[in-house]
Design a protein that fits this description.
Blueprint lengths: L23 H30 L6 E2 L2 E3 L12 E2 L6 E5 L3 E3 L5 E11 L10 E10 L6 E2 L4 E3 L21 E2 L4 E9 L6 E7 L11 E8 L1
Parallel strand pairs: 3-5, 4-13
Antiparallel strand pairs: 1-6, 2-13, 5-6, 6-7, 7-11, 8-10, 9-12, 12-13
């Protein structure tokens, strides 16, 4: 094959002809990879920022003690309904017992903030477990148990957290049932008063209201 001197295709007379592989594709690939990595990093940072700004729904443990309306914390005992009034007072961490053998106990107190899909949402709350034991001779409709939160505050309903209100079931004689409740309760609040009133559907009598009262840390 012959070449015309001076054309781009002709080899240089002073040096041997050589072919150099271009590095453009490799550089392009590296650039694209760097951009993609940066984009992923920014995306992760954005997700972290969003997550950090969401409401913390993880409850923290709370301790309770008897209020001055009851006996001292070290002397407080389970309370029997032996009054003639419509109510009787119980230390927050003790057990209320009605005359027919029905008992109610609060435990597992925790503070937290209701989640995005709770009702109401974004509220500081006091969560606790309610255990009722039926020592009477009649069944108790738990769905009709009345629970009043401190200072008439809202009850928190949050299926994800297990706050579904009272169970829709009957508690048979000799049986017990535990469920979770939560009440709107400011982070700075300390004094708590929770009222529970079972409902007698047998027609054999009526229940007084047990007022659980104490201090929450």
């Amino acid at each position: 094959m012959s070449y015309i001197p001076g054309t781009p295709s002709a080899p240089s007379p002073s040096r041997p002809y050589a072919v150099f592989a271009t590095s453009t594709p490799t550089r392009l690939r590296r650039t694209v990879l760097a951009v993609a990595t940066a984009a992923v990093g920014c995306s992760l940072c954005a997700c972290s920022a969003i997550s950090g700004g969401q409401t913390d729904t993880t409850p923290s443990a709370a301790t309770v003690s008897a209020s001055q309306d009851t006996q001292g914390a070290e002397d407080a005992k389970d309370t029997q309904d032996d009054s003639d009034s419509d109510t009787f007072t119980v230390a927050l961490d003790k057990t209320a017992t009605w005359n027919n053998g029905v008992k109610a106990h609060l435990s597992g107190f925790r503070r937290g903030t209701s989640g995005e899909y709770a009702s109401p949402s974004g509220k500081a709350y006091l969560a606790f477990s309610v255990t009722m034991q039926n020592g009477s001779k009649s069944s108790i409709d738990l769905s009709m148990v009345s629970l009043s939160c401190p200072d008439g505050a809202d009850e928190i309903f949050d299926t994800d957290a297990g706050f579904n209100g009272t169970p829709d079931t009957h508690l048979l004689p000799g049986k017990s049932q535990t469920w979770k409740e939560a009440c709107a309760f400011p982070k700075t609040a300390r004094s708590a008063q929770i009222e529970i009133t079972p409902t007698d559907t047998s027609g054999s009598g009526w229940y007084r209201t047990a007022i659980f009262t104490g201090q929450v840390q």
